Description:
Helix content is 65%, strand content 11%. By secondary structure, it is of the alpha/beta class. The termini are far apart.
Amino acid sequence: MADIYKQKNNYKFAIANSNLAYKYATANNDVLNKSIALTSLGTIYFELKKIPDAKDAFIKSINELNTLPLTSQLALNYYKLGLCAMTLEEYTLAEKYFSKAEKIYRTLKIENTQLLLLQKGILYNAKGKKIEAAQIFNELISKPDDEDSYNTKAEALYQLGSIEYNKNRSNLALNYLNRALALNTSSNNNIEQRIKILFLLSMTNDNLLNTSLAHTYLKEHVLLRDSLLKLNNKRLAANDYISLKESERIDLFEQLSKENETQQKTNKFAKLISVLAIALISILSLLSLSLYKNNIIRTQSNKLLQEKNSELEIAKEKAEKASQARADFLSTVSHELRTPLNAINGITHLLIEENPKESQVHYLNSLKFSGNYLITFINEILEINRIESNNIEIEKIDFKLKDLLNNIQNSLKELAKVNNNKFILDIDENVPNVVIGDPTKMSQIFLNLINNALKFTKNGEVKVIVELFGIKENSATIHFSVMDTGIGIAKDKQETIFDSFAQGSIEINRKFGGTGLGLAIVKKLIDLLGGEIKLESELGKGSTFYFDLAFEISENQVDREKEEILLLDTDIDTMLEGKNVLIVEDNKINQMITKKMVEKKGMITKIIDNGEDAIEEIRNNNVYDLILMDVHLPSINGTIATREIRKFNKSLPVIALTAISLNENRDILLGFGMDDVITKPFDINTFYTVISKVLSNSKSVA
């Protein structure tokens, strides 16, 4: 009956019937139904925002259930008690209650993770742990759509929108909030959620100077808020609440009176017991005194321990904030540096291609080297930061290990000739041809190790050895060694050689150059892959870096090279000549560089400097073979523009141009409908290769 009245928004009778249910269960000593009645009462009070009353009901229900075998009802009460604590901003208590609920569900083997995961994310967000919160919210929105998950996904999208809004990234915030509103509208049953989504949409549009939209959302927010207030007044008037609480107090008084009568009957017997107890108390008094002294000492110790724990908690929060600040700083700085570097590298390449004077070639090559050095340095700093912030994923795909190493050997042959080194690759014939792992991480590891070996060795030998240690249950353990006959590393420097920016000594840094990040990246990547790198070295006699890694042996015999060779054999100039390209870029220098590079291959270009005009241009003109879309544009960004274009044109190739930052990744950009990504500053070969590859895969290629 209480549930029926609640559905009819008659909360007065809902509370009254819940109280009656509790009385009947108490009279029959029915513990389970007492707890269910209390849970119902607590839920009603929670919906009416009477949080202290709700909290009291849930705690009483938990006390009843703790006398019974473990049930999901107990987990539900802990979860709802956690929601009360979240409302009161008692985040430590909320985390404790959610953990208890999760433990009970896990013990009972009940799948109920989405709501608990959502609250965990909201809890992280409230405590300032934005990265952990965003990871949880992204995990929730990536799950398949169904009606039961609309509210959860809408809340996760709203929370992501609030995170981006607080970081002043209004375009990203707007994307998340629009998706949250769409899901909320689909479920059509969570008015409170819609109210807060509309308010944040109004604030975000106001930041973007979309004043008309901001006003519309704010107006809708106020109307819904007022209607909710009216609905709450209809649910339970103030006088009704007072009378219900008075009725509860009268019932409690009657219950206490009955208990008092029972107590008086037992008091007579208790007097006899008391006389006998006095003797026992006298004997125990001395023991109690001793225990009291011990308790004082223990209390003082506990108080000291609590103070120390509080200090540690404050220190931990400061460290986390400092780490986040560092990550944000590196992300912003690296992103901002890439744009001018794109201009430096692009203009340098164009000048070299235009037959400069012999006296100018040396300066241009030096400028090109400096630009490449800077972008390598930025990339390595970002890679270190990604690993340390756990913002990196390990792939598990089929790849040919032998071919990967052979390709690396071929790409570094010229570097070996510079210092007159022999470069030998020795691969055990028993090593499986196709394994499952992360070829990108493996390439990073070997390129760094072999580059170092070739750089610090002159007129010597660099040898890469790959040996099979054994195969067990379709898993191959492979031993890798990179040996050189170079300058070696002193014993006292070997312990710190894997630290960031460590190069053995200042003299080595000045003589050989480099960032000092390569070996730090290698060690962290090998740790992530489940291995451990070790070093043997002696000054003047060379160094050996070695490690073991386990790989699953693939059942598929993939031949990836054919596809790559086909791309290499294709005449890129012929493929690109005459193609119509729309360049969407707001930076004037980048416009000039991109236009020059594209027209150099005979392509026809048009430049637009904003997303709105790009959408209209594609809608009205069906002449383009390709769009080069800058991600960061004024007003609406490149990702939103691409998503709008995909609504009416799904086949036109779109390539993202981005000075990619710590929080961006390829998968996110492709998720908006882009076909590929080219990062700034442009690598010339990669620039043309990606364009030709995308065009060859599209329907626009004749």
